[in-house]
Amino acid sequence: MDQLFPLVYAELRRLADSCLRRERAGHTLQRTALVHEAYLRLLGGSQPDYQDRAHFLGIAARIMRQILVDYARRRNAGKRSAAMQVPLLEASAASIERPSSMIELDDALSDLEKHDERKARLIEMRFFGGLTAEESAEVLGLTVPVVRRELRLAQAWLERELDRRTSTEAPSE
Fold it and tell me: How many domains does the chain divide into?
């Protein structure tokens, strides 16, 4: 890991930028801190046999996602509100203004993982890790068209799930 880290540091910073771009403006967790926290978690865990650069970045993206979710959970401290939900496409295209949006997206992504782990990994690699369809295909041993199709299906599933949660959690008038 000590030999690998300097080689992929720039890529980890790019991943951190991708993750933080979806966060609220003025987020107190900075890119360098996110990279270093991910590095510490990578060192602290069991070291998988990284197949290649894309595989390593996929794992790093998952760790960064978890760091941001943990940060949001601590910051939010149970103050969820249905009014704070953000659809997946908006979350991926614009800043998430409130920590609970990250938590709700993470909860929905965890539910997707229970149903279809591969689709959850694709969402994670694309939206949290910024991996391309080609890189994701390489990591998962799939073809690019399969990755693109499964990613579209996963996005649709998450959109429906977030909409369902919003409609069931909204107070009735």
Answer: 1
Q: Would the CA dihedral through 81, 87, 88, 89 be positive or negative?
A: negative
Are the C-beta atoms of 129 and 61 separated by less than 8 Å? Answer: yes
* In contact, 139 and 125? CB cutoff 8 Å: yes
Query: Which residue bears the tokens 């992929």?
Result: 8
pTM over 0.70: no
Q: Is 75 exposed, middle or buried (0-12, 13-18, 19+ CB in 10 A)?
A: middle
Are 162 and 87 contacting, i.e. CB atoms less than 8 angstroms apart?
A: yes
Look at residues 88, 90, 144, 143 and name the one whose alpha carbon lies nearest to residue 112: 88
The amino acid present at 171, given as its one-letter code, is P
Q: For 44-59, how does the pLDDT look when each residue is reduced to its tens digit (9 = 90+)? A: 766 667 777 777 777 8
Q: Which domain holds residue 128?
A: 4-169
Helix (H) or strand (E) holding 54: helix 53-76
